[in-house]
């Protein structure tokens, strides 16, 4: 009997420790892979003068911390891998309960979806996932700290004032040239 | 023991809540899909706003659980959609709110009202146009038909919706 209880307790512990697959791990695992390109950007990419911002906008800018991008470029030889990797990302987003889907759009071999992590108007992460069957796919994680809906609205106006540092995005644009990636541009 | 089994039976369908018979149209090459989930509407409901139109929109947003739009020009999928809609109408308490035929295009709007005249639990719009595309819009939640008019310029068939909400 005692053994049974021990077994149950052990298995419960095991279940408790079972970690859900996360995008973070997936992205770290593939960042060195030749089929992928990874890019981490800080909020400084926006190059916006603090003095030009209102208090609300500063607060919004501070809520956002960084941007992680992982993109897979499809070529003549990695078609099967593309399908497998795309399926894996979709599986993570579907099965890990912390990602809640906000919306998705799809049409003729391409699609985009937006996920969020967090609740009660305090969000810590937004995930954009876009794919196109000829080009590849891209995952964008926008990471922050207790981002509220009003932060997002104010962040939009920060973006209008910002002067985006294209130099920092160059590895990504080079990677996909001459074909451009079409991630669905959806405002969260 | 019997009670337990009974409870399980009652609970199981609720696990699949949010699933819909229209889900099969997702991810098909010939069909364009737009799906907006409850979480998105919840988030939008948190935006602070003062002007009247956006307040109406926010009120609507809070009441919506799910918006699904499927569009196709493919003949096979068009007839599949029609069959699914017919099936759905048979098994759910949906009543026809209005029907508009214009130059070969037929727009049908069905609602499942939650008792009162303007409260809506489910709205289904089906647009058939043999020369053009077939559009299926499904909106679920608990919202006011009058508030729908703010969506009119944002979704296909919105003009018809506007007319429908005025009619009531």
Task: Please tell me about this protein's structure.
Chain A has 188 residues and is α+β, with helices and mostly antiparallel strands. Chain A has one domain. Helix content of chain A is 39%, strand content 31%. Chain A has 6 helices and 6 strands, in the order ααβαβαββββαα. Chain A has helices at 2-17, 23-30, 55-63, 79-95, 149-161, 166-176; strands spanning 36-42, 64-73, 100-107, 110-119, 122-132, 136-147. In chain A, a hairpin with a 3-residue loop joins strand 5 and strand 6 (136-147). Chain B has one domain (30-167). Chain B has helices at 2-15, 38-44, 52-63, 75-91, 158-167; strands at 31-37, 64-72, 95-102, 105-113, 119-128, 134-144. Mean pLDDT of chain B is 79; it is low at 11-18. Strand 3 of chain A pairs antiparallel with strand 1 (31-37) of chain B, so a sheet runs across the interface.
Describe the structure in brief:
The complex is a heterodimer of chains A (188) and B (168). Chain A has 188 residues and is of the alpha+beta class.
Number of DSSP-assigned strands of chain A: 6
Number of strands of chain B: 6
Strand content of chain B: 25-35%
Radius of gyration of chain B: 17 Å
- Report low-confidence residues of chain B grouped into runs of 5 or more: 11-18
The overall pLDDT of chain B, averaged over residues, is 79
- Secondary-structure-based class of chain B equals alpha+beta
Please report the number of helical segments of chain B. 5
Low-confidence stretches of chain A: 179-188
Query: What is the rounded distance between the termini of chain B?
Result: 49 Å
As a percent range, the share of strand residues of chain A is 25-35%
Main sheet of chain B, how many strands, which sense, barrel?
Answer: 6 strands, antiparallel
> CA-to-CA gap between the ends of chain A?
54 Å
Number of helices of chain A: 6
């Amino acid at each position: 009997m005692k053994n049974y209880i021990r077994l149950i307790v052990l298995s419960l512990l095991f279940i408790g420790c079972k970690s859900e697959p996360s995008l973070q791990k997936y992205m770290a695992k593939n960042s060195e892979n030749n089929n992928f390109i990874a890019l981490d950007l800080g909020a400084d990419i926006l190059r916006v003068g603090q003095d030009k911002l209102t208090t609300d906008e500063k607060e919004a800018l501070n809520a956002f911390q960084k941007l992680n991008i992982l993109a897979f470029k499809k070529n003549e030889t990695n078609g099967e891998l593309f399908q497998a990797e795309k399926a894996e990302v979709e599986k993570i987003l579907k099965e890990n309960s912390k990602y809640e889907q906000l919306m998705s759009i799809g049409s003729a071999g391409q699609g985009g979806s937006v996920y969020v992590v967090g609740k009660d108007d305090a969000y810590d992460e937004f995930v954009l996932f876009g794919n196109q069957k000829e080009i590849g796919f891209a995952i964008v994680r926008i990471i922050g700290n207790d981002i509220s809906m009003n932060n997002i609205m104010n962040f939009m106006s920060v973006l209008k004032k910002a002067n985006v540092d294209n130099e920092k995005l160059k590895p990504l644009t080079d990677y996909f040239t001459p074909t451009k990636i079409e991630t669905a541009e959806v405002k969260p | 023991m019997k009670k337990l089994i009974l409870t399980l039976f009652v609970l199981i369908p609720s696990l699949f809540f949010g699933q819909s018979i229209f889900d099969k149209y997702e991810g098909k090459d010939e069909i364009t899909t737009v799906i907006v989930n409850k979480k998105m509407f919840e988030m939008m409901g948190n935006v602070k706003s003062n002007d009247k139109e956006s307040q109406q929109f926010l009120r609507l947003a809070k009441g919506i659980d799910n918006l699904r739009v499927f569009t196709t020009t493919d003949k096979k999928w068009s007839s599949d959609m029609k069959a699914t809609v017919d099936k759905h109408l048979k098994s759910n308490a949906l009543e026809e709110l209005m029907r508009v035929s214009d130059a070969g295009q037929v727009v049908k709007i069905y609602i499942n009202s939650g008792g009162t005249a303007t409260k809506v639990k489910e709205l289904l719009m089906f647009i058939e146009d043999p020369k053009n595309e077939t559009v299926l819009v499904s909106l679920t939640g608990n919202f006011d038909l009058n508030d729908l008019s703010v969506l009119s310029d944002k979704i296909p068939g919105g003009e018809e919706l506007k007319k429908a909400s005025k009619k009531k």
